[in-house]
Design brief:
The chain has 355 residues and is an alpha/beta fold. It folds into two domains: 119 residues, Aspartate Aminotransferase, domain 1 (Alpha-Beta Complex); 220 residues, Type I PLP-dependent aspartate aminotransferase-like (Major domain) (Aspartate Aminotransferase, domain 2), CATH 3.40.640. It has twelve helices and 13 strands.
Protein backbone atom coordinates (compact mmCIF):
# COMPACT_ATOMS: atom_id res chain seq x y z
CA UNK A 1 0.00 0.00 0.00
CA UNK A 2 1.37 3.37 -1.06
CA UNK A 3 1.23 5.89 1.76
CA UNK A 4 -0.11 9.39 1.05
CA UNK A 5 2.47 11.88 2.36
CA UNK A 6 -0.09 14.69 2.38
CA UNK A 7 -2.78 12.84 4.34
CA UNK A 8 -1.84 14.29 7.73
CA UNK A 9 -1.08 17.82 6.56
CA UNK A 10 -3.61 20.40 7.72
CA UNK A 11 -6.26 20.99 5.03
CA UNK A 12 -5.88 24.76 5.53
CA UNK A 13 -2.27 24.50 4.35
CA UNK A 14 -3.15 22.30 1.37
CA UNK A 15 -5.64 24.93 0.19
CA UNK A 16 -3.19 27.83 0.35
CA UNK A 17 -1.34 29.07 -2.71
CA UNK A 18 2.32 29.63 -1.87
CA UNK A 19 3.84 33.10 -1.91
CA UNK A 20 6.13 33.00 -4.92
CA UNK A 21 8.07 35.40 -7.09
CA UNK A 22 9.45 34.01 -10.33
CA UNK A 23 13.06 35.10 -10.92
CA UNK A 24 13.45 37.04 -14.16
CA UNK A 25 16.71 38.42 -15.55
CA UNK A 26 16.82 42.19 -16.01
CA UNK A 27 19.15 45.17 -16.21
CA UNK A 28 16.98 47.45 -14.06
CA UNK A 29 15.29 45.73 -11.12
CA UNK A 30 12.31 47.69 -9.78
CA UNK A 31 9.98 44.92 -8.62
CA UNK A 32 10.77 44.20 -4.94
CA UNK A 33 10.91 47.59 -3.21
CA UNK A 34 14.62 47.20 -2.55
CA UNK A 35 16.94 50.07 -1.74
CA UNK A 36 19.04 50.70 -4.87
CA UNK A 37 21.76 52.42 -2.82
CA UNK A 38 24.17 49.83 -1.45
CA UNK A 39 25.65 49.78 2.04
CA UNK A 40 28.88 51.85 2.11
CA UNK A 41 31.99 49.77 1.49
CA UNK A 42 33.68 50.76 4.75
CA UNK A 43 30.84 49.12 6.72
CA UNK A 44 31.34 45.91 4.74
CA UNK A 45 35.06 46.04 5.50
CA UNK A 46 34.37 46.50 9.23
CA UNK A 47 32.03 43.53 9.13
CA UNK A 48 34.55 41.38 7.27
CA UNK A 49 37.13 42.10 9.96
CA UNK A 50 34.70 41.04 12.70
CA UNK A 51 33.87 37.84 10.85
CA UNK A 52 37.56 37.01 10.47
CA UNK A 53 38.25 37.57 14.16
CA UNK A 54 35.30 35.62 15.56
CA UNK A 55 35.17 31.87 16.04
CA UNK A 56 32.53 30.36 13.74
CA UNK A 57 32.16 27.36 16.03
CA UNK A 58 30.46 29.35 18.78
CA UNK A 59 26.77 30.17 18.90
CA UNK A 60 25.64 33.80 18.57
CA UNK A 61 24.30 35.77 21.53
CA UNK A 62 21.10 33.99 22.64
CA UNK A 63 19.20 37.23 23.35
CA UNK A 64 20.93 39.53 20.82
CA UNK A 65 21.50 41.82 23.81
CA UNK A 66 23.79 44.35 22.17
CA UNK A 67 21.61 44.67 19.07
CA UNK A 68 18.48 45.18 21.18
CA UNK A 69 20.30 47.84 23.18
CA UNK A 70 21.23 49.70 20.01
CA UNK A 71 17.68 49.32 18.67
CA UNK A 72 16.34 50.80 21.90
CA UNK A 73 18.55 53.85 21.45
CA UNK A 74 17.51 54.10 17.80
CA UNK A 75 13.75 53.76 18.35
CA UNK A 76 13.27 55.32 21.79
CA UNK A 77 11.69 52.12 23.11
CA UNK A 78 12.84 49.97 26.03
CA UNK A 79 15.32 47.10 25.44
CA UNK A 80 13.03 44.65 27.25
CA UNK A 81 10.32 45.43 24.70
CA UNK A 82 12.39 44.49 21.64
CA UNK A 83 13.11 41.20 19.92
CA UNK A 84 14.76 40.43 16.59
CA UNK A 85 14.02 37.97 13.84
CA UNK A 86 15.16 36.55 10.53
CA UNK A 87 13.37 39.35 8.72
CA UNK A 88 10.22 40.99 10.08
CA UNK A 89 8.18 38.29 8.30
CA UNK A 90 9.42 35.69 10.79
CA UNK A 91 8.28 37.89 13.67
CA UNK A 92 4.87 38.46 12.08
CA UNK A 93 4.48 34.71 11.68
CA UNK A 94 5.33 34.14 15.35
CA UNK A 95 2.92 36.80 16.61
CA UNK A 96 0.01 35.45 14.59
CA UNK A 97 0.89 31.91 15.66
CA UNK A 98 0.58 33.05 19.29
CA UNK A 99 -3.00 34.19 18.81
CA UNK A 100 -4.67 32.52 15.86
CA UNK A 101 -6.31 29.11 15.66
CA UNK A 102 -9.61 27.68 14.49
CA UNK A 103 -12.42 29.96 15.61
CA UNK A 104 -10.20 33.05 15.87
CA UNK A 105 -10.38 36.04 13.52
CA UNK A 106 -7.70 38.02 11.70
CA UNK A 107 -8.68 41.40 10.25
CA UNK A 108 -6.89 42.99 7.29
CA UNK A 109 -7.37 46.09 5.16
CA UNK A 110 -7.02 44.95 1.56
CA UNK A 111 -5.34 44.89 -0.86
CA UNK A 112 -2.22 44.45 1.26
CA UNK A 113 0.85 42.23 1.65
CA UNK A 114 -0.17 38.70 0.64
CA UNK A 115 1.72 36.94 3.45
CA UNK A 116 -0.67 38.21 6.14
CA UNK A 117 -3.55 36.23 4.66
CA UNK A 118 -1.39 33.15 4.17
CA UNK A 119 -0.29 33.30 7.81
CA UNK A 120 -3.87 33.65 9.00
CA UNK A 121 -5.20 30.77 6.93
CA UNK A 122 -2.30 28.50 7.84
CA UNK A 123 -3.36 28.90 11.49
CA UNK A 124 -6.95 27.92 10.54
CA UNK A 125 -8.24 31.40 11.42
CA UNK A 126 -11.03 33.26 9.65
CA UNK A 127 -9.51 36.08 7.61
CA UNK A 128 -11.75 39.14 7.43
CA UNK A 129 -11.08 41.86 4.89
CA UNK A 130 -12.01 45.54 4.85
CA UNK A 131 -11.44 46.88 1.33
CA UNK A 132 -9.90 50.27 0.61
CA UNK A 133 -12.52 52.67 -0.68
CA UNK A 134 -9.71 54.52 -2.43
CA UNK A 135 -5.96 54.37 -2.01
CA UNK A 136 -5.50 57.88 -0.62
CA UNK A 137 -6.41 56.90 2.95
CA UNK A 138 -7.35 53.93 5.11
CA UNK A 139 -11.11 53.14 5.20
CA UNK A 140 -11.74 54.52 8.69
CA UNK A 141 -15.49 53.88 8.76
CA UNK A 142 -15.31 50.35 7.40
CA UNK A 143 -12.37 49.45 9.63
CA UNK A 144 -13.98 50.66 12.85
CA UNK A 145 -17.30 49.06 11.92
CA UNK A 146 -15.63 45.71 11.28
CA UNK A 147 -13.78 45.86 14.60
CA UNK A 148 -16.96 46.69 16.49
CA UNK A 149 -18.98 43.96 14.75
CA UNK A 150 -16.45 41.12 14.39
CA UNK A 151 -14.23 41.65 17.47
CA UNK A 152 -11.12 40.28 15.74
CA UNK A 153 -8.48 38.55 17.82
CA UNK A 154 -5.71 40.13 15.78
CA UNK A 155 -5.24 42.55 12.92
CA UNK A 156 -2.28 43.51 10.78
CA UNK A 157 -2.15 47.04 9.44
CA UNK A 158 0.67 47.77 6.99
CA UNK A 159 1.66 51.45 7.07
CA UNK A 160 2.69 52.63 4.58
CA UNK A 161 0.67 49.89 2.98
CA UNK A 162 2.17 47.55 0.42
CA UNK A 163 1.28 47.79 -2.47
CA UNK A 164 -0.80 50.99 -2.33
CA UNK A 165 1.65 53.26 -0.45
CA UNK A 166 -1.15 54.46 1.83
CA UNK A 167 -0.20 55.83 5.26
CA UNK A 168 -2.41 54.95 8.23
CA UNK A 169 -3.36 58.22 9.89
CA UNK A 170 -2.32 58.43 13.54
CA UNK A 171 -5.83 59.46 14.62
CA UNK A 172 -7.33 56.37 12.98
CA UNK A 173 -4.73 54.14 14.62
CA UNK A 174 -5.60 55.63 18.02
CA UNK A 175 -9.30 54.94 17.41
CA UNK A 176 -8.50 51.36 16.43
CA UNK A 177 -6.42 50.82 19.57
CA UNK A 178 -9.16 52.25 21.77
CA UNK A 179 -11.90 50.14 20.20
CA UNK A 180 -10.25 46.70 20.13
CA UNK A 181 -8.81 44.38 22.75
CA UNK A 182 -7.21 42.18 20.08
CA UNK A 183 -3.55 42.38 19.15
CA UNK A 184 -2.87 45.20 16.69
CA UNK A 185 0.22 44.60 14.59
CA UNK A 186 1.52 47.70 12.81
CA UNK A 187 3.87 46.56 10.05
CA UNK A 188 6.19 49.49 9.41
CA UNK A 189 8.54 47.98 6.85
CA UNK A 190 8.58 51.30 4.96
CA UNK A 191 8.21 53.77 7.82
CA UNK A 192 11.51 55.59 7.15
CA UNK A 193 10.03 56.92 3.89
CA UNK A 194 6.83 58.14 5.54
CA UNK A 195 7.86 60.42 8.40
CA UNK A 196 5.57 58.64 10.91
CA UNK A 197 6.87 56.36 13.68
CA UNK A 198 4.11 55.70 16.26
CA UNK A 199 6.43 54.43 19.01
CA UNK A 200 4.80 56.82 21.49
CA UNK A 201 1.58 54.80 21.24
CA UNK A 202 3.28 51.75 22.75
CA UNK A 203 3.33 53.32 26.22
CA UNK A 204 -0.45 53.31 26.66
CA UNK A 205 -1.36 50.41 24.39
CA UNK A 206 0.15 47.09 25.51
CA UNK A 207 -1.82 45.31 22.75
CA UNK A 208 0.08 47.23 20.05
CA UNK A 209 3.00 45.55 18.29
CA UNK A 210 5.26 47.27 15.76
CA UNK A 211 7.36 45.31 13.28
CA UNK A 212 10.20 46.83 11.25
CA UNK A 213 12.95 45.68 8.94
CA UNK A 214 16.48 46.50 7.84
CA UNK A 215 15.57 45.41 4.30
CA UNK A 216 14.25 48.64 2.83
CA UNK A 217 15.64 51.95 4.05
CA UNK A 218 18.83 50.37 5.42
CA UNK A 219 19.64 48.51 2.19
CA UNK A 220 19.99 45.12 3.89
CA UNK A 221 17.37 42.92 2.23
CA UNK A 222 20.00 40.25 1.66
CA UNK A 223 20.82 40.02 5.38
CA UNK A 224 17.25 39.09 6.49
CA UNK A 225 17.03 41.03 9.74
CA UNK A 226 13.93 42.54 11.33
CA UNK A 227 12.82 43.63 14.77
CA UNK A 228 9.68 43.95 16.83
CA UNK A 229 8.64 46.53 19.42
CA UNK A 230 6.02 45.60 22.01
CA UNK A 231 5.10 45.30 25.66
CA UNK A 232 7.69 43.28 27.61
CA UNK A 233 5.05 40.74 28.62
CA UNK A 234 4.24 40.15 24.95
CA UNK A 235 7.93 39.87 24.11
CA UNK A 236 8.24 37.20 26.81
CA UNK A 237 5.56 35.11 25.10
CA UNK A 238 7.11 35.61 21.67
CA UNK A 239 10.47 34.42 22.94
CA UNK A 240 8.88 31.19 24.16
CA UNK A 241 8.15 30.06 20.60
CA UNK A 242 10.83 31.90 18.66
CA UNK A 243 13.55 29.49 17.63
CA UNK A 244 16.76 29.89 19.65
CA UNK A 245 19.71 31.42 17.80
CA UNK A 246 17.43 32.44 14.95
CA UNK A 247 19.89 35.19 13.94
CA UNK A 248 23.40 34.15 12.96
CA UNK A 249 26.40 36.07 14.28
CA UNK A 250 27.22 37.59 10.89
CA UNK A 251 23.78 39.17 10.57
CA UNK A 252 23.89 40.38 14.19
CA UNK A 253 27.26 42.03 13.60
CA UNK A 254 26.03 43.58 10.35
CA UNK A 255 22.90 45.00 11.96
CA UNK A 256 24.93 46.52 14.79
CA UNK A 257 27.32 48.08 12.26
CA UNK A 258 24.42 49.57 10.32
CA UNK A 259 22.97 51.10 13.47
CA UNK A 260 26.37 52.52 14.38
CA UNK A 261 26.47 54.30 11.02
CA UNK A 262 22.89 55.49 10.56
CA UNK A 263 24.05 58.84 9.20
CA UNK A 264 25.13 57.04 6.04
CA UNK A 265 21.52 56.24 5.20
CA UNK A 266 19.89 59.63 5.81
CA UNK A 267 20.77 61.20 2.45
CA UNK A 268 19.93 58.08 0.37
CA UNK A 269 16.51 57.96 2.07
CA UNK A 270 15.90 61.62 1.23
CA UNK A 271 17.10 61.00 -2.32
CA UNK A 272 14.58 58.17 -2.71
CA UNK A 273 11.82 60.40 -1.37
CA UNK A 274 12.75 63.09 -3.91
CA UNK A 275 12.88 60.50 -6.69
CA UNK A 276 9.51 59.13 -5.58
CA UNK A 277 7.99 62.59 -5.98
CA UNK A 278 9.64 63.09 -9.37
CA UNK A 279 8.34 59.73 -10.56
CA UNK A 280 4.86 60.57 -9.33
CA UNK A 281 4.86 63.97 -11.02
CA UNK A 282 6.12 62.70 -14.38
CA UNK A 283 3.97 59.59 -14.43
CA UNK A 284 0.93 61.73 -13.66
CA UNK A 285 1.54 63.64 -16.90
CA UNK A 286 1.39 60.51 -19.04
CA UNK A 287 -2.03 60.23 -20.63
CA UNK A 288 -3.82 57.02 -19.69
CA UNK A 289 -1.79 56.42 -16.52
CA UNK A 290 -3.50 56.83 -13.14
CA UNK A 291 -0.89 57.24 -10.42
CA UNK A 292 -1.59 56.83 -6.70
CA UNK A 293 0.26 58.92 -4.09
CA UNK A 294 2.72 56.91 -2.01
CA UNK A 295 4.49 57.33 1.32
CA UNK A 296 6.76 54.32 0.71
CA UNK A 297 9.61 53.64 -1.74
CA UNK A 298 7.32 52.42 -4.52
CA UNK A 299 4.43 53.72 -6.60
CA UNK A 300 1.24 51.95 -7.66
CA UNK A 301 -0.32 52.93 -10.97
CA UNK A 302 -3.27 51.82 -13.07
CA UNK A 303 -3.64 51.76 -16.83
CA UNK A 304 -5.16 49.76 -19.65
CA UNK A 305 -3.36 46.85 -21.24
CA UNK A 306 -1.09 46.22 -18.26
CA UNK A 307 0.13 42.88 -19.63
CA UNK A 308 1.45 44.51 -22.80
CA UNK A 309 3.12 47.35 -20.90
CA UNK A 310 4.68 44.98 -18.35
CA UNK A 311 6.01 42.75 -21.13
CA UNK A 312 7.36 45.69 -23.09
CA UNK A 313 9.22 46.99 -20.05
CA UNK A 314 10.64 43.54 -19.35
CA UNK A 315 11.79 43.16 -22.95
CA UNK A 316 13.67 46.44 -22.54
CA UNK A 317 15.39 45.05 -19.43
CA UNK A 318 13.18 46.77 -16.83
CA UNK A 319 11.42 44.54 -14.29
CA UNK A 320 8.52 45.96 -12.26
CA UNK A 321 5.72 44.16 -10.40
CA UNK A 322 2.50 43.09 -12.07
CA UNK A 323 -0.16 43.07 -9.33
CA UNK A 324 -3.16 43.18 -11.67
CA UNK A 325 -4.32 39.67 -10.70
CA UNK A 326 -4.92 40.74 -7.09
CA UNK A 327 -8.51 41.56 -6.16
CA UNK A 328 -8.85 45.33 -5.93
CA UNK A 329 -5.74 45.93 -8.04
CA UNK A 330 -7.16 45.19 -11.47
CA UNK A 331 -5.08 46.84 -14.23
CA UNK A 332 -2.43 47.89 -11.69
CA UNK A 333 1.35 47.74 -11.76
CA UNK A 334 3.83 48.66 -9.04
CA UNK A 335 7.26 50.17 -9.56
CA UNK A 336 9.98 50.54 -6.94
CA UNK A 337 11.85 53.83 -6.76
CA UNK A 338 15.29 53.20 -8.22
CA UNK A 339 18.40 55.22 -8.87
CA UNK A 340 17.82 58.49 -10.78
CA UNK A 341 19.14 57.04 -14.04
CA UNK A 342 17.00 53.89 -13.59
CA UNK A 343 13.90 55.98 -13.02
CA UNK A 344 14.61 58.04 -16.15
CA UNK A 345 14.90 54.90 -18.25
CA UNK A 346 11.70 53.49 -16.74
CA UNK A 347 9.83 56.71 -17.56
CA UNK A 348 11.17 56.72 -21.11
CA UNK A 349 10.09 53.15 -21.82
CA UNK A 350 6.74 53.65 -20.04
CA UNK A 351 5.98 56.62 -22.30
CA UNK A 352 6.91 54.59 -25.37
CA UNK A 353 4.73 51.70 -24.20
CA UNK A 354 1.71 53.92 -23.67
CA UNK A 355 2.10 55.65 -27.00
Amino acid sequence: MVKDPLKKIKPEILRISAYHLKPQPCQIKLNQNENPFDVPEFIKVLLAEKILQRSWGRYPDFHATELCRKLAAHTGWIPGGITVGNGSNELLQIVLHLVLERGKKLLLVTPTFALYRIMGLSNAAAVLEVPFEDFSCFPRGGLLEAIDKERPDAMVLCSPNNPTGTLLESDVLREVLELTDGLVVLDQAYHEFSGYHGVDLLHRNPHLIITRTFSKAMAAAGLRIGYLLGHPEVIEQINKVKLPYNINFMTLAAAEALLDNLDCFLEPIQELIRERQRLYNEMSEIQGVEVFPSRANFILFRMKDTARVFTNLRQKGILIRDVSSVRGLENCLRVSVGLPEENLEFLRVLRESVQ
